[in-house]
Amino acid sequence: MKLKIAVLPGDGVGPEVTAQAVKVLKAIAQEFDHTFQFKYAPVGAVAIDETGEPLPKTTLDLCKATDAILFGAIGDPKYDNDPSAKVRPEQGLLKLRKELGLYANIRPVKAYDTLLDKSPLKRHIIKGTDICIYRELTGGIYFGEKKLSDDGNTASDLCEYTRAEIERITHLAFKSAQSRKRKVTLVDKANVLESSRLWRRVVTEVSQEYKDVKLDFLFVDNAAMQIILNPKQFDVILTENMFGDIISDEASVIGGSIGLLASASVGDYFAMFEPIHGSYPQAKDLGIANPIASILSAAMLLDHFGLFEEAELIREGVERSLKLNITTPDLNTKFNHISTSKVGDFIEDFINNPK
Amino acid sequence: MKLKIAVLPGDGVGPEVTAQAVKVLKAIAQEFDHTFQFKYAPVGAVAIDETGEPLPKTTLDLCKATDAILFGAIGDPKYDNDPSAKVRPEQGLLKLRKELGLYANIRPVKAYDTLLDKSPLKRHIIKGTDICIYRELTGGIYFGEKKLSDDGNTASDLCEYTRAEIERITHLAFKSAQSRKRKVTLVDKANVLESSRLWRRVVTEVSQEYKDVKLDFLFVDNAAMQIILNPKQFDVILTENMFGDIISDEASVIGGSIGLLASASVGDYFAMFEPIHGSYPQAKDLGIANPIASILSAAMLLDHFGLFEEAELIREGVERSLKLNITTPDLNTKFNHISTSKVGDFIEDFINNPK
Ligand SMILES: [Mg+2]
Ligand SMILES: [Mg+2]
User: Fold this and answer.
1) Closest ligand, as measured to the CA of B189
2) Nearest-angstrom CA–CA distance, B299 and B297
3) Which run of H or E residues covers position B51?
4) Do A81 and B158 touch (CB under 8 A)?
5) Is residue A221's pLDDT more than 80?
6) Which of A97, A187, B39, B242 has the smallest CB count inside 10 Å?
7) Cα(A263)–Cα(A249) distance, rounded to whole angstroms?
8) Catalytic: which of A61, A221, A268, A285?
9) Same-fold call for B1-103+267-355 versus B108-259
10) Segments making up each domain of chain B, as ranges
């Protein structure tokens, strides 16, 4: 298969971890006789530094001309604590999602047996957890109209949703549930918010087309409790943009390491794959960033194009690295100084010579 | 001291647990020679059933004519899954907070040593946790303008904040931090939301008046992780209404039982005290609801009026009941069938005859 892949390494540890994912994809291409072409472009704070824009037009054009996007991370502390900054790295990611119509963010959350003791949660609470979160990604309050009064004393953000926005991601979530445990939990705040009541109405209607899938509902504040109290109760979680941001980050701690969690952002025409960890600027260039989330997002990319065997081989390489303690310091209890690129090398070797 | 106390038992288990708090307050009045006058009024689903309104005018008038309000819980499942319902029990609570100007919701979260093993989190993660959450309660998206298009296909909610709304709760949070560990963490989403950027600006300005308190910032999605990963890092958490709803419910699981957590909702003129657990309709009239949160909210009421010794005696009674396993089934590993009112009786006895 020929694939054109846009690589957007971004800020902080983004370039280091993305380099390992590319390394692994190149090994896959070689072993399976695929042709993967990689084209690089800046995004985020590095793009602001270069061009003044967090998402330069050339980057967006490249993304539109490729089959898939491998994304690193964006964000730089110099913008976070400056409320007066007009241009922000995060705008690059938000705009990219919007421009490419990436309306569904998909995040698998799994408790790896080998890492149960890493979790802040008790073993019996998390063992067997296998959740897939579908977060709406291009609507809601993050994209709604923002206002600041002239005197600077009143500010507002609008959370708006349309039936069409809700329907399309609802279909994806229910289809996914059909090949899983056949349960969708809608997380909303329908007892207070009008937009949540629209979600509940539309999702209930769409669910009629999936009679084999059970639908239930949870208010977002209760969901924030239930994810800690009993994560095993969930199969597919479906929710709007901001609730999904909060709930999926909360759920990310279950597995014991955010450095393992990959994600996909898909729309009707484009798809982007990225680790869920942020730019982690404190770790930049230290060789300590865990590349596994980025490598697993490369596996999700292969899945997206039906290359299941290839994706599986990457996942086997990852599991082998975890078992043999060939991991970065965040996970490693045995060896010192196994660097970001050493982990990538190990998985590359595994693909070249699977044992 | 003479206190007029409005008692609003509400729905579900509200009446049962509130009855225990009243029992305990009566014991305090007797022991310390105070005069507490209790007046009852309906709120929530029971008020809708009686009058058609979740907050009847007579209830609101009573609250305004009293010194403090002891509140039970509201909510009934018959309204939750009916998106077409025009009147909802929760509106009663929202309206009460708004009408009485109860702009700050205060929630202490503590890990009791005797209950560490009850928590879904590991012992070493939570031991020593002592957080106080200040949640803005009368602004933001829960109260913003709600719209539903005529065709029913577009819905929106507005999140709006003013400088004045932010300033007043910020002062309360910083004053509280001064008698604690001198740290305030503002939870927001300032990298995306205009309203969050206003929060960050105003809180930063107000913090200049409290040089002895350290201020730091956390994005809400990161906060949802940090509360599980390392709850001990927090002292006072300050946040807007919806973030506070989610974060404080999430934090409520730390201590291992939501049945122990009390809260205060205060404004410049009125104050209301309530357990944080909801109406828990499945448990109604079974005698299994834990009354301790309601009893501890009575203690917060006494603190509010400077009756520190009295409040402390209640807390001692509670700790004694926990130690001796005189608790409802949710906590009890030793005795069966200790009912809601038995727990109240024990703490009442303790107050009459402290040992
Ligand atoms: Mg996030
Ligand atoms: Mg809540």
Assistant:
1) 1
2) 5
3) helix B45-51
4) no
5) yes
6) B39
7) 12
8) A221
9) yes
10) 1-103+267-355, 108-259
Adjacency order of strands within the sheet including B214-219: B35-40, B2-10, B68-73, B271-275, B262-266, B104-110, B130-136, B236-239, B183-188, B214-219
User: B195 vs A122: CB contact, 8 Å cut-off?
Assistant: no
Q: Which one, of B37, B39, B46, lies nearest residue B11 by Cα? A: B46
Q: Tell me if ipTM is over 0.95.
A: no
Residue B80 has pLDDT above 80, yes or no: no
Contacts 24+ apart (CB under 8 A), B140-148: B140/B195, B140/B240, B140/B241, B140/B242, B141/A141, B141/A159, B141/A193, B141/B241, B141/B242, B142/A192, B142/A193, B142/B94, B142/B241, B142/B242, B142/B245, B143/B94, B143/B98, B143/B241, B144/A156, B146/A193, B146/A194, B147/A194, B148/A194, B148/A198
Distance (Å) from the alpha carbon of B197 to chain A's nearest alpha carbon: 6
Q: Is the CB of B125 less than 8 angstroms away from the CB of A120?
A: yes
DSSP code of residue A203: H
Is B188 noted as a catalytic residue in this protein?
Answer: no
CATH number for the region B108-259 comes to 3.40.718.10
Distance between CA atoms of residues B77 and A2, nearest Å: 54
CA of B231 from ligand 2 middle (Å) equals 19
Catalytic, B150? Answer no
Ligand 2 centroid to Cα of residue A321, in Å, is 41
The confidence score (pLDDT) of residue B312 equals 92
* CA A67 distance to own-chain centroid: 18
Please name which of A213, A333, A278 lies closest in space to residue A17, comparing C-alpha atoms. A278
User: Active site includes A245?
Assistant: yes
Query: Of B14, B81, B79, B5, which Cα lies nearest the Cα of B48?
Result: B79
pLDDT tens, residue by residue, A300-327: 999 889 898 999 999 999 999 998 999 9
Type of residue found at A39: K
B142: annotated active-site residue: yes
Distance B276 CA to ligand 2 centre (A): 8
- What are the two backbone dihedrals, phi and then psi, of residue A271, each rounded to the nearest 5 degrees? -150, 140
- The torsion region of residue B10 among left (phi > 0), alpha (psi -120 to 50) and beta comes to left
Q: Is the dihedral of CA B174, B175, B176, B179 positive or negative?
A: positive
Tokens of B293: 């949160």
Class of domain A1-103+267-355: alpha beta
Q: Which residue of A has its CA nearest to B151?
A: A163
Which residue from A minimizes the CA distance to B77? A191
Across the interface, do A193 and B249 touch by the CB < 8 Å criterion?
Answer: no
The closest of A49, A164, A118, A149 to A260, measured between CA atoms, is: A118
Give the active site residue among B26, B181, B232, B245.
B245
**Chain A contact set for B142 (CB, 8 A):** 192-193
Nearest beta carbon to residue A217 from set B81, B144, B246: B81
Contact B322, B331 (CB under 8 A): yes
At A336, the pLDDT band (50, 70, 90 cuts) reads confident
Rounded-to-integer distance, Cα B261 and Cα B73, Å: 13
The per-residue pLDDT for range B291-335, each reduced to its tens digit, is 999 999 999 999 889 898 999 999 999 999 998 999 999 888 888
Residue B201: its chain A contacts at CB < 8 A?
83, 152
Tell which CATH classification among 3.10.290.10, 2.40.40.20, 3.40.718.10, 3.40.50.10860 matches the domain A105-260.
3.40.718.10
Place of tokens 């946040």: B239
Tell me if residue B82 is catalytic: no
Pick from B314, B254, B341, B305: nearest CA to B2: B305
